[in-house]
Amino acid sequence: MAGAIIGSATWNQGIDNGYTLGVTVNGNCNLKCGHCYLPRERSAGVISDELIRACADSGFDRLAIVGMEPLLNKSVARQTLKLLEQSQEKFQILGFITNGLNLGSYAKELAALGVDYVDVSFDGGPSMYQARRGVPFDKVRRGVESALEEDLTVHALHTLYGENVSEESLVDMYALGNILGESGKQFFSPYVFVKGREVQSADLSHVLQTLVSSGFNSHETAHFLLDELNVRQYVGGIRCSEVQTLFQECGIDMKKVDLAPLEKMDNVLRVTWDGLCLHPLDTLDTKTYSLTGLKVTSQISLFDLRSKLLGRRCL
């Protein structure tokens, strides 16, 4: 789930050091991935100039632009690039998540605006990508190559669910290391169950065992991301002894694992294109956003809204 909320930022910059703002810039996508937790009812809405200013002036340390698809079309890309332009001098790190289909058209502009890394979501390697996403692998590969030509760092994000947790699928995903460049990493995280989706959750122990048996420990660029949203569908939380026991029993290399317990997730704020602020643990059920989120207004900063959300959770 870390991949969906803020991408590789949980590993990339250590979200326990400072604060991360994850921004959903629009309400539509050019793919319909079976595991996506965002609304099935698509919207043509896109982040406003006013909300762009609020995000840019938020005082957070890192910005992660997370979709639905920030390069969907020219109008969405225009607002996305405007957010980056206004943010480039105000954040320590600029991160960007995309499905990569239109990455080639905007790679030069992303590089010019100082994007530190681009996360491309895959969930399948060269052989199985099209079966997972419904589009040819070569299209996203060309986007990655264009980004690398502009000296952008490109990482791969993989959500692991029942249908793609197998040694064959994982070996196919590892093959992406051949196209990511020297600085590119691959990040794997378990799918979090959402009602009405086309894929099934995989048991955490099965995920870990299959990673190890497929050679995960020997792939230098492969990392495993696990946060509270991932874990709470199985046990009480990351700090539970069951989780630590699972890691030990499965034999996964803990140097390749990044854990984001609740105290880390408290340092993250999610902002939706239509102006709602949410704690990461409240982002799965989009139908309850209006109940769990707080509306962005000009009277209160995003940083103060984050504090209000944390106060609610402590009640």
Keyword list:
315 residues; alpha/beta; TIM Barrel; 11-stranded mixed beta sheet; 14 helices; 17% strand
Provide the domain count: 1
Mean pLDDT: 88
What's the oligomerization state? single chain
Given the C-alpha coordinates, what overall shape results?
globular
Strand order in the sheet with the most strands: 8-7-6-5-4-3-2-1-9-10-11
Structural description of this entry:
The chain has 315 residues and is α/β, with parallel strands linked by helices. The chain has a single domain (2-314), classed as Aldolase class I (TIM Barrel, Alpha-Beta Barrel), CATH 3.20.20. It has 14 helices and eleven strands. Strands 8-7-6-5-4-3-2-1-9-10-11 form an eleven-stranded mixed sheet. Helix 3 (49-56) runs parallel beside helix 4 and helix 5 packs parallel to helix 7 (137-149). The protein is globular and about 55 Å long. The two termini are 25 Å apart. 50% of the residues are buried.
Q: What is the compact description of this entry?
A:
The protein is α/β, with parallel strands linked by helices.
